Fold:
Amino acid sequence: MPRVIGHLDLDYFYAQVEEVENPAIKTRPVLVCVFSGRTEDSGVVSTANYRAREAGVKSGMPITLAKRKLQGMDLVIVRMERSKYESVSERVMELVRTKVDVLEKTGIDEAFFDLTRSSNGDYKSASETAGLIRVSILEEEHLTCSVGLGRSKVVAKLGSDTAKPAGLMVVPPESTESFMGGMAVTKLYGVGPKTGKTLEELGIRSIADLAHADPATLERAFGRKTTAYLHAAANGIDDDQVKESQTPTQFSRIITLKNDTTDAEEVMAQLSDAEDDLRDKLISTNTSFRTLTAIAVLTDLSTKTRSKAFEVPVNNLSSVKGSALELFGQLSDTADREFRRVGIRVSDLEGNQDQSSISEFLRQS
DNA sequence: GTATGCTTTCGGC
DNA sequence: TTACGGCCGAAAGCATAC
Structure:
């Protein structure tokens, strides 16, 4: 039986949540922004609605530039409030979970799902379920979304991409080649600028080009493993299963400094709130970590990191402050520019079976 | 040569 | 002309073991 895999993507998510909260702004360009606090408008656009995108605004764009692109228009700027979008996301995912076999949340606004069993491999039946999912998200949360259905994650993802905004793209297995073949290879998950450039140099531009490329040529350029993946992906094949979302692998907090510096003590002082926040996150999720990383974004926006692994899992972030200071010292020693932004990351996470600290945390807060 | 595991960088949203 | 966040997972890079 062919698999029926779906990919769900909530349209321009943060900005759409703001529109739902305040429908009067729907007809205007809306920017959900992160302000760094350095100067009045210092920061970037996190998400823009389609009215703003039409004017050339993209996510990650400096706010000042976005404002220029939209000058003369009746612009709405909203400060990003992540916890709000997280709650909406959770509710949407719960709703979808009741209608599919398996749901794998892959981001705050997207998820893969499996309908193979419930549709018995029938794409007509699966399309109806996908339609039902879209309608219920619209009815319950007033949000539009885009959905793709196909025989693998690769196809489903390309499907939702093609369908957006507010569409459904169903790609039955026999249509996979005609659906994907004409697309640029760079549309494939895992083909970024670097791989794309190398492929271009080999004369491979479309997914069909890649699907029919000589394996030996690809292996010389990318090695065995990547070639196997690329070849399969270009044919719309991947065995990657939809699995219930796994536990997180890392937590991090990053801030923009008041002023550029390389002074490790100053960095630690300014990171104090971020550190408290990360400590709370570890406590509330009852998680320990084995690796601590210091992150520095230099004035040219390049990123440098230094990390330290501990023999035994650490459950108290405060106990490794000294290590963090050392890591920032290492970064200062090697960096050729000042730091603009700094952060801390914990990874190699381990859940703790003992639940008592959760209740203790809740009681305290 | 290949697998494994760790650190650092990349890239999507 | 420049401008410029805060997350996350995955890829890339490197060393070691067999």
Observations:
- Residues 354-365 of chain A have pLDDT under 50 and may be disordered.
